[in-house]
Design a protein that fits this description.
transmembrane; transmembrane helix
Length: about 150
């Protein structure tokens, strides 16, 4: 067959419908001299990057609280004896996760979340499976902090 291989739905413009707009970054005023976005532009393309990052942090902490609470019984059955102190630590950490998830709008909450991951790692002294959960959630939290830095700059 002859003819165009594919035609885009915006009139066939290969650069897309926003290629000539100033928001696309093609004008000299759209970018700073360093090659990044100008001071008034959004860096990530999100409508509200702060809200998106807060949601990421809150979702991560809420998931951590849920996993901690649901892990009590399997740890008791499979992992051996789980002391009352370990169960208390799990419940306290889960409550702290929920509280911090609600406070993610505050700047210090990210630092408190990092401290919380360290406390979960330290609770591994009470039971080895808590250390494993601490390592997993510390890695997840580190990724969330990385995404926060990338989006907010």
């Amino acid at each position: 067959m002859t003819g165009p291989v594919s035609e885009r739905p915006g009139g066939g413009d290969p650069q897309g419908p926003e290629a000539g707009t100033p928001d696309a970054g093609n004008s000299p005023a759209g970018n700073s001299e360093a090659g990044g976005p100008a001071s008034g532009q959004r860096r990530s393309g999100l409508r509200n990057p702060e809200k998106a990052v807060r949601g990421l942090g809150a979702g991560t902490l809420a998931l951590e609280a849920l996993v901690l609470l649901l892990a009590i019984q399997p740890i008791r059955v499979v992992g051996g004896h789980l002391s009352g102190a370990a169960i208390g630590a799990i419940v306290a950490l889960a409550v702290a996760c929920v509280v911090l998830a609600g406070l993610m709008g505050r700047a210090w909450a990210w630092h408190a979340g990092t401290v919380l991951q360290g406390l979960l790692l330290l609770s591994g002294l009470l039971h080895w499976s808590l250390f494993v959960l601490g390592v997993i959630f510390a890695l997840v939290w580190a990724y969330a902090v990385h995404v926060r830095r990338v989006i907010l700059g």
